[in-house]
Amino acid sequence: MTSYKAVFLAATLLAGVQAHAQVAGIQPLSFSVVQSEALLEGWSAKKSLLDKSVYNDQNEKVGTVRDLIVAPDGSISAAIISAGGFLNVPHHDIAVPIGSLDVHDGNLYLPGATIALVKATPAFQYAKVQSPPKPKKQLAH
After folding, report:
1. Which of 41, 78, 84, 98 is the most buried (most CB within 10 A)?
2. Whether the model pTM is above 0.90
3. Are 45 and 68 in contact (CB under 8 A)?
4. 39-48, 65-74, 121-130: which range is least confident on average?
5. DSSP-assigned letters across all residues of 37-71
6. How many CB atoms sit inside 10 A of residue 110's CB?
7. pLDDT tens digits for 98-115?
8. What φ, ψ does residue 56 adopt, rounded to 5°?
């Protein structure tokens, strides 16, 4: 077992033991050791996706990932890709399903895309969220 996994496992087990003596403002998170290990093996959206260039099949840059849209169930549903935005050209944001992006050799690709197609796609506009997302318990109903 690698040292960081051993430390994390020990901390998780210790947190479980201390669950009976909670201190105000301190509460162990409710996820399993298996889930914790999966998190350690995951990847960072900030380092792997945000502000990364998106290319087409001909290795031409068609935009940049500016944001990710999280669906009510907690999954990532779309990437917001921005084209333009340099040399006084206004940027044009579009939403593409996250599953339509390919990753090859650490680069992001949007197969079949061209700059003209990206700019011809209707612009994405953020919804005005009036309140925070609903709790998970309410989503199940």
Report:
1. 78
2. no
3. yes
4. 39-48
5. HHHHTS--HHHHTTT-EEE-TTS-EEEEEEEEEEP
6. 22
7. 999 999 988 999 999 998
8. -100, -170
Do residues 99 and 45 make contact, with C-beta atoms less than 8 angstroms apart? no
CA atoms of 140 and 137, how far apart (whole Å): 6
Burial of 117 (0-12, 13-18, 19+ CB in 10 A): middle
CB atoms near residue 122 (< 10 Å)? 8
Q: Which two tokens stand for residue 123?
A: 């612009």
Give 14-46 pLDDT, tens digit per residue: 444 444 444 445 545 555 666 666 566 667 788
